[in-house]
């Protein structure tokens, strides 16, 4: 019995020694001599490589490796020698079991690698999976876009029209969705432009950059139909960070004229409830649409019409009154009156002029 046990131990030791000897002598032996003995460039440094253990997508690892090595501008032989440095676990075992001098090019190595690990490739989700991505109640638009893009990356061969439809279907009801439905984007990049330049970016709005403003008092005086007011749940954020919540959006026609030179346009106004000396504020987006040229120094606006160049002049007194009203109580001290200079002390007798000589 002892003899049999001793024989088994000796057999295991011999087998282990044989495997170890094969491992030592097979170092880099998977490549032909032209690759195995190819000298490394003097300044070559192995870049940080993404590890691959056989459970991830082999295409991802291969493409990442090729991109990094191509940036190094190294020849094919160096790419072959550097390839196994990122292999771990079962992937390293696979490489070590390759036949001696069986790899003669990087293309051959890549094909053998993909053929062996193709079973570990991730399976993409169907395009209909994007229809399950919905914007949550308290989720900002920016967070929703990031989450949607992350899910879209898992879709194989997703068509752009399907992605657009799924994105819009997942949006909460509001001004941004209404804007997209009114003017549907044709491609995904156009939709992202709407997000970055539209009036709902990150659920905040910059008053002077996005939309014209109609003060609530003026809206009530106009006695407009409340059914025409579209809901808007995003706050206006001012220059100082103050927030004003809007009542909604309403589309109104505006006409600028000095008869017969007139120009008309339909504009979206954001109705806000805040004190103001103005009835409405027309900002740069509409001025650009009307192709207006403004001179604040001359209190003048010029714009092209079918009958020539039209002009609108502002009243300086009314402008000053609106400005002082907007300042509130502090506006009372904005005007300084410069009176005639007074002499505080008079000489007691007539003064003589005395000349001074040099030296």
From TrEMBL:
<dbReference type="Pfam" id="PF03732">
    <property type="entry name" value="Retrotrans_gag"/>
</dbReference>
<protein>
    <recommendedName>
        <fullName>Retrotransposon gag domain-containing protein</fullName>
    </recommendedName>
</protein>
<dbReference type="InterPro" id="IPR005162">
    <property type="entry name" value="Retrotrans_gag_dom"/>
</dbReference>
<feature type="domain" description="Retrotransposon gag">
    <location>
        <begin position="82"/>
        <end position="172"/>
    </location>
</feature>
